[in-house]
Amino acid sequence: MKGMRVLITGVDGYIGAVLGPRLVERGFDALGMDCGFYRDGWLYNDDHPRPLTFTKDVRRTAPEDVQGFDAVVHLAELSNDPLGELNERTTYQINHHGSLTLAQVCTTLATRILVKRVAPSSAGQVV
Question: In this structure, is residue 121 part of a structural domain?
Fold first, then answer.
């Protein structure tokens, strides 16, 4: 597993902010992708090395974004966010269409995609 090249979508989010540094510490070649909605109010800083991150909306994922990765950990979504109440359409587009776009791109490149299960107790939601 060491040296495995992993893309983490939503790397600046609740789970990604913890997972990214852990993967780096364990020797994974991790890279983050995040739209940066919450970058100014960084959620979690444990002073551990963070993966290099590029700014991109998951709804606009292109083949070149995932090419060369051994796996993708998909965490990009709006979770428990007031935006879901204010703009259900945007939340649905990011959480549903963004996930479908990423899955389709990964499928065309035969990249394994590790998708977080969304259950009632999870942080994720699709309105």
Answer: no
